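Deliverable D5.2: sample structural annotation.
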Amino acid sequence: MTLSMLKNAPRNLVFFALVPASALLSGCSLLFDEDTREGTETAEECAVRVAGLLGPGTSYHAFTNNVGTPTFTYDVTKMPFEDLQALIDEGGDETAGRRLLDATNENSTARQTFMSMSVDEKGAFFLALDPSLYRVRGETQPLTEMIATGCERQTEGMRLIMIDVVPERVEPVLCPADPAEGEDIDPECLKQDEP
C-alpha cells in the first residue's frame, strides 16, 4: 500500500491495515527476548537475581567464615560507553582480557583464566567478547553484606554475575616473650623462636 493509496483509502481500511502490522512488531519480543542486561536494576532486584546465581558450587556458598574479601564480577556489555570509559579511567586494567586471549588463543580458556585471576580494588576488564566482564576486589566485610554491596556498585547496563570470596587475612599473634605473672595468654598465639 503506497502513501497516495493511504490518503484516498477509507479510514477503516487504514486502521485494519496498520493493526496487524503493529501486532507483528509486538510479537518480536516473543521471538527475541528482551536483553535483561539493559537499563537500570534496583539493588533489591539485583539481590534477588544474584542470590539465585550463587549456587552451591560457588566459592560464595562454600565459604564458611563470617568475614572475607569479595571479588565482584560484573557483566558490562550493555553499559553506556561514557560510563564504561569513566570506569576504565579510574585505573582498572583494561587490557587483561586481550592479553589472555592473545596468550591462550582460546576464548573459553581466556575467560576461565580471567575469572580465576586475582584483581585489586581498581579492577580488571575482559572487553574482547560478549559478555564483557569487569572484576574488582571489594573491602573485607561480613559474608551477609556482600550481595548488597555488590548490587549497590552497579550502574546502568551493569549486572553483578558472580562473587568470589577469600578468607580475611589474619595476622598471627605472637606470644609475649616474657609474660607477666597472672597475664592471660591467647592459646592461639605463636611461640617466638628462642635466639
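Annotation notes: Strands lie at 67-75, 124-126, 133-137, 141-142, 159-167. Confidence is low (pLDDT under 50) at residues 12-29.
The annotation will be released with the project's public dataset once the embargo ends.
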